[in-house]
Amino acid sequence: MTTDAPWRSARLDAIGTVITGSTPPTGVRSNYGRQHLFVSPADLGRSKYVRSTAKMLSAKGFGRSRRVPAGATLFVCIGSTIGKIGMADRELTTNQQINSVIPNAAVDAEYLYYASSTLSTLVREQAGEQAVPLVNKSQFSEFEILLPSLPEQRVIAGALADSDDLIATLERLIAKKQAIKQGIMQQLLTGKTRLPGFTGRWDEVALGESGAITGGGVDKTRNPTETAVVLLNYMDVYRAEFIDQGTATMHVTASAPKMAKCSVKAGDVFFTPTSETPDDIARSAVADADLPGVVYSYHLVRWRPGPGWDPSYLGYAFSTESFRAQASTLAAGSGTRYVVSMPGFRSLVVPKPAIDEQRAIGATLREVSIEINALNARLSKAQAVKTGMMQQLLTGRTRLPVNDVVAA
Q1: Given this model, what pLDDT does residue 406 score?
Q2: How far apart are CA 370 and CA 224, in angstroms?
């Protein structure tokens, strides 16, 4: 049956007990145990429950902390991640940056978790522009959520939990496929495992000996006397394996000579020459086709390979542990920013099988990437559907039927 029962607005401290966490005494913290979760904001992620990386307290430390029961909603009210939420799936304790709401009998615990997510923007706004964003316990307790009847709360929470389950299943599947892909890459790209029919010797080739390394890309500026172009940026390369017409989105201008010098052609490999850490430098992506009207940024280095290279193979060849170690070793910096010089890039060595084996390796890995990309698209759609459901269900714009079993 459907329900037409009106919803009411209720303060958090009227529908549950609000408590602020505390950090265990120094003596206790120096001897963490293995029994009880101690949760900080870093342990709350995109998923509903606390991450498994949370620290554990000994029984002594737990006994001296403010305990939060299973079913409580956890809400970050201090710091840069203010507004982040989670749910306790067991008895635990939190640090002082987290307020917990322990629901009373009139409130479904899962509904409270989902309804609390609607407060995230409000909490961030109330925190203001302070050096350390903060909403104190009194302010937090006064925030209100919309509350339908308990049976309707359960139906809404069940629908959103089903959506969360689908998202979690997709995330686990993607993580599994990515791990498999990483294993395949480490085998095929190092020659430890050969695809059927290939036995030829591999060469080791320095980039500077097998193509042209160039920098000096285009600035992020607009000049009315120049031609409008699209700029391939650092993060475009950092996030991608392959670059197509839709990868770059920033619009700038460039002179005709600069456009010619900084063009993007099929098979071009782009590297990130700087990073905050040495082990994250020289990330790469490969142009899948000629991209007219696209130029690369001055924050990138381009390698235009000579003959005998397969673009699909090159999309993965620079992701091996051995290549990453080379780049990391060459990175020079002061501790806040590291850079690989142009001579350094020219000296980097990459394995070069025969072109037919490159094509076979590239095709194999691209099949796995296509599968992962399809799963990511499904995940994005599922997340968008959940967002839409929350906007409808948690405001009462859309009402779900409450059957007799649930109502009872």
Answers
A1: 45
A2: 40
Give whole-number Cα distances, 5 to 46, 152, 338, 407, in Å.
32, 9, 61, 12
The answer as to whether 3 is a domain residue is no
Of residues 181, 185, 108, the one with CA closest to residue 148: 108
Question: What is the separation of C-alpha 383 from the centre of its chain, rounded to a whole number of angstroms?
Answer: 13
Rounded distance between C-alpha atoms, residue 69 and residue 173, angstroms: 31
CA distance 256 to 11: 62
101/238 same-domain check: no
CA distances from 329 to 53, 315, 318, 336, 337 (A): 30, 22, 15, 16, 14
Reply yes or no on whether the pLDDT at 358 is more than 60.
yes
Instruction: Give the CA distances from residue 280 to residues 186, 224, 292, 312, in Å, rounded to whole numbers and listed in that order.
Output: 18, 37, 30, 22
- Encoded amino acid at 214, one letter: T
- Tokens representing residue 177 in the block: 């496929």
- What's 194's domain CATH number? 1.10.287.1120
End-to-end CA distance of the chain: 12
Is 90 exceeded by the pLDDT of residue 334?
A: no
- Considering its fold, how many domains does the chain have in total? 3
**What pLDDT was estimated at residue 76?**
94
Verify that 334 and 390 share a domain, yes or no: no
Whether residue 219 is found in the same domain as residue 255: yes
Give the range of the structural domain holding residue 93, as residue numbers without chain letter.
8-147
Contact 221, 252 (CB under 8 A): yes
| Shared-domain flag, residues 53 and 194 | no
Return the pLDDT at 72: 96
Confidence of residue 290 (pLDDT cuts 50, 70, 90): very high
* CA-angle at 391, arms to 387 and 395, nearest 5°: 155
Asked whether residue 407 carries a pLDDT value surpassing 50, the answer given is no
Whether the CB-CB separation of 218 and 348 falls below 8 Å is answered with no
Torsion-angle region of residue 211: left (phi > 0), alpha (psi -120 to 50) or beta?
left
- One domain for residues 319 and 371: no
Bridge partner list, 275: 338
pLDDT band at 31 (very low <50, low <70, confident <90, very high): very low
Identify the CATH number of the domain in which residue 283 sits: 3.90.220.20
Confidence band, pLDDT 50/70/90 cuts, at residue 198: very high
Based on its alpha-carbon atoms, the radius of gyration of the chain, rounded to whole angstroms, reads: 27
Which amino acid, residue 34?
A: R
